[in-house]
Amino acid sequence: MSDAPLKRTPLHAAHVAAGARMVPFGGWDMPVQYRGILEEHRTVRGAVGLFDVSHMGEFECEGAAALAALQSVTTNDVAALKIGQVQYSVFCYPNGTIVDDLTVYRLAPDRYMVTVNASNLDKDYAWVTDHATSARWRNVSDETGLIAVQGPKAEALVGRLADRDVTKIGYYRFARGAVAGVAALISRTGYTGEDGFELYTAAADTPRLWAALLDTGRADGVAPIGLGARDTLRLEMKYVLYGNDIDDTTNALEAGLGWVVKPAKGDFVGRDALEKIRAEGVRRRLVGIEMVDKAIARHGYPVQKDGRAVGIVTSGSYGPSVDKYIAMAYVETALASVGTELAVEIRGQAKAARVVRTPFHPSRVKKA
Amino acid sequence: MANVPKDLKYTREHEWAKQEGDRVRVGITAYAQEQLGDVVFVELPKVGAKVTASKNFGVVESVKAVSDLFAPVSGEVVEINGELSQKPETVNQDTYGRGWMIVVKPSNGGEWDQLLTPQQYEEFLAQAAH
């Protein structure tokens, strides 16, 4: 890690004023919790929560060859994207392992926005400007704030403040509008498994929007949510997190991201390797496991079958909404089917676990 | 400042110890539970197990962190708090009461005098804050 000072989002002062516990995350000083991770998790599942995700990176990609540029570095088919649509995708290395996962927004015929993980921002910007040179790239991360509003009451809350009918915005669609008088790109996306929006705004306007959402959402039970609950919420959905479940040693297919790998679209970085892996079959797969013995499986713990090492845990915690100890793990393909009995080595002891169906908790995202 | 009851002794690893006749009841301090956040798992030794002063006797886990538990005194575990396997949140809710972890029958009475007094523990916390 570098000794560079931690970066601050436009909402940093609001977090500190609210008594959040701040921790370093991907080079940023971020709130891990406000009142408690479990309570915040339940607020999102039961009402509505606000997440400051302004640390995430946004790049604009523009020009007559913007589509070609994006096609060449992402795995999903950007040609399928209409204006107003969002697409989940992956940047791969030539060997099919992962540079980052991301979302692509088509803003205009020849203009796109790409949203990437905060911890990968510099690496990603170097990657796209090296490998997708036919477009004009602009890193707009510093001037962009991002608030996620997630939970069953998110639509009502954003709807009350928006100057347009947000119920018309389908899942993985976006529209431009004003929310609480703040110009925003209103995106029906998220990382919790609940319905909700991600609101992209000018960095300078972000505190005003945050305050308005907290104020107007009081009757809905709105609360700010830290990174701790963001992690348990996404874990219950088996959404991958870069650095935990995916990285430059895991390929997109074994990670379960084959649904966004579209070789038929034409060439892209990693295509040949992924075609080969797909033809030969993946050797291991990322699965959801539930602990049978009481214990928490954590990142890096070995997975065993009858005493033999067969995989590794990538994420694990207590799942507050399922009330179980759950985890994600790479295991040999032959052991990846639901119901397979496994063990996780925890502090030298083999603790019983089994492969279960995922998501662990039912998704309630609004399908278009 | 975290709550530091006057009738207990303390370790630098943030366990409390309470003398009850010839036994010592053990838990973690208010400061420790506050730092951990929501406790979601507690692993304790079995009754009859031997514990050693300053050595690990179990684990307490929050959503984000795994933290070892250290025995304030050496001896035999004569009681464990079985409620914590079903309700680990008790540690947060009543850390000096129903959130106790084990009761030890000490094998070396001299160790009790090595533990921090409430005043020493408060000073230790004050230093840790700087």
Task: Name its key features.
heterodimer; A: alpha+beta; Gyrase A, domain 2; Alpha-Beta Plaits; Elongation Factor Tu (Ef-tu), domain 3; six-stranded antiparallel beta barrel; 19 strands; globular; B: alpha+beta; OB fold (Dihydrolipoamide Acetyltransferase, E2P); 4 helices
Structure explained in plain terms:
The complex is a heterodimer of chains A (368) and B (130). With 368 residues, chain A is of the alpha+beta class. Chain A is built from eight helices and 19 strands. In chain A, strand 5 and strand 6 (98-108) form a beta hairpin. The longest helix of chain A has 11 residues, at 121-131. The model of chain A has no long low-confidence stretch (mean pLDDT 97). Chain B has a single domain, classed as RNA polymerase II/Efflux pump adaptor protein, barrel-sandwich hybrid domain (OB fold (Dihydrolipoamide Acetyltransferase, E2P), Beta Barrel). The mean pLDDT of chain B is 96. Helix content of chain B is 20%, strand content 34%. Chain B has helices spanning 30-36, 83-86, 90-93, 118-128; strands at 9-10, 15-20, 23-28, 39-43, 50-51, 56-62, 66-70, 75-80, 102-106. Chain B starts with 8 loop residues before the first strand and ends with a helix. In chain B, the strands form two sheets. Chain B has a six-stranded antiparallel sheet. Chain B has a three-stranded antiparallel sheet with strand order 4-6-7. Chain B has 130 residues and is α+β, with helices and mostly antiparallel strands. Chain B has four helices and nine strands; from the N terminus they run E-E-E-H-E-E-E-E-E-H-H-E-H. The chains are: A alpha+beta (368), B alpha+beta (130). Chain A binds chain B through residues 21, 32-33, 36-39, 228, 231-232, 294-296, 298, 317-318, 325, 347, and chain B through 37-38, 40-41, 43, 59, 61-64, 66, 85, 89.
